[in-house]
Amino acid sequence: MAFKDNFKEFKSLWVNSGILLRQVDAEGDFDEFEAIWSDSDAFKYYEGYRSKPNAEQIRIILSNEIKGFQKANSYCWTISNSTTNKAMGRIHFNSFENNNTSANIGFFLGREHWGKGIMSMCISPVVEFGFNTLKLERIYTTVEPNNIGSWKALEKNGFLREGLLRHCFVLPDGLHDCYIYSRLYTD
Ligand SMILES: CC(C)(COP(=O)(O)OP(=O)(O)OC[C@H]1O[C@@H](n2cnc3c(N)ncnc32)[C@H](O)[C@@H]1OP(=O)(O)O)[C@@H](O)C(=O)NCCC(=O)NCCS
Asked: What integer pLDDT is reported at residue 50 of this predicted model?
């Protein structure tokens, strides 16, 4: 199957009976993402987050996630409560490179869902989908060293720390070093 064929039909992934990774619903997920992104302090180690986005910017972000899938540039799941369908956070692949054998993984949860093992559980089916369906060879991401919950969730999913990249993150308070983590299909 050609890489682009994976983007004809969106694949939802079950994490467990209570959590479903499903496609972004730009209208239906608006309120939850507005609440999640209004918590600026929760994103202090998240590269790309500058300040609380306004309603117009949130609409653009959500619709770009859908367009990214349609163009085979990204694969973005809303982490949802399977009973209420409410969004809890997001997990995605983007930056498909090296003949679509390599992808960046990124994720976040609303603060009320932290510390319950949820992201450690969500990473697992996404990585499996990346290797077995998208046929990736390498999945990687960068993490600010103080973002312990993030790199621990990666390590619990078999990601290896490759090193420290100096001054690679631009955060609101300036440049930060970051760890780079990866997992290979062959690991
Ligand atoms: C990073 C984030 C996704 C972690 O999700 P989570 O569901 O809370 O993580 P988990 O509960 O699966 O925790 C994973 C491990 O990290 C530990 N942990 C979680 N938060 C921690 C913290 N603040 N300090 C120390 N350890 C922490 C957990 O105890 C667990 O380890 P254990 O199994 O040995 O007990 C979440 O905090 C978040 O969304 N943060 C804001 C956005 C962000 O920074 N995203 C990542 C960018 S790289």
From this structure: 84
**What pLDDT digit, counting tens, does each position of 10-26 carry?**
999 999 999 999 999 99
Q: Is residue 114 within 8 Å of 129, Cβ to Cβ?
A: no
Per-residue CA distances from 33 to 27, 74, 83, 86, 154 (Å): 10, 18, 18, 10, 23
CA of 59 from ligand 1 middle (Å) equals: 27
- Residue 91: CB within 6 Å of ligand 1? no
Ligand 1: does its nearest atom lie under 6 Å from the Cβ of 49? no
- Identify the structural domains of the chain with CATH numbers, from first to last: 10-184 (3.40.630.30)
Reported pTM: 0.97
